[in-house]
Amino acid sequence: MTNAQIKQYKNFRSFYPFYLSQHQNIISRRLHFMGSSLIIITLAYILINAAWPLLWTLPLLGYGFAWLGHFFFEKNKPATFTYPCYSLLGDWVMYKDMLMGKLKF
Fold first, then answer.
1. Which long-range contacts does 75-83 make (Cβ < 8 Å, 24+ apart)?
2. How far are the Cα atoms of 22, 57, 88 from residue 18, in angstroms, in the given order?
3. How far is CA 15 from the centre of its chain?
4. Is residue 71 a part of any domain in this protein?
5. What Cα–Cα distance (Å) separates residue 87 from each residue in 46, 49, 91?
6. pTM
7. Contact 40, 86 (CB under 8 A)
8. From the CB of residue 100, how many other CB atoms can be counted at a distance below 10 Å?
9. Which residue range forms the structural domain that includes residue 42?
């Protein structure tokens, strides 16, 4: 996609349906869920134990699992590369939707 072809979203509400369209594969969604869960668990460990040197692992956990899902199961480019802020928010909204049973995983 060239810069001229990249859709500009005015708000997250208009972006989220696109985000979900990039996360159709159940295995990919499960990998996203695992990565986000590991972020929460690791962050809790870091905060409880003041293990600040481990902070660098958080993006590795989150993006590592998500990108495995995109490259091997979705076979698409992660939206993070084009829409980093909306995609980060999308990760957590999708996580909430999966936890609440609104989205199958």
1. 76/22, 78/22, 79/18, 79/19, 79/22, 82/1, 82/6, 83/9, 83/15
2. 7, 28, 14
3. 14
4. yes
5. 24, 30, 6
6. 0.89
7. no
8. 8
9. 25-99
User: In angstroms, what CA-CA distances link 32 with 46, 68, 73, 91, 103?
Assistant: 21, 9, 12, 8, 13
How far apart CA 15 and CA 9 sit, in angstroms, is 6
The mean pLDDT value for 9-38 works out to 97
> Residue 63 domain-assigned?
yes
* 3-class secondary-structure state, position 51: coil
Q: Does the residue 5 lie in any domain?
A: no
Q: Report yes or no: 29 and 105 within 8 Å, Cβ to Cβ.
A: yes
d(CA 61, CA 80): 15
19, part of any domain: no
Task: Note the pLDDT tens digit of each residue in 59-73.
Answer: 999 999 999 999 999
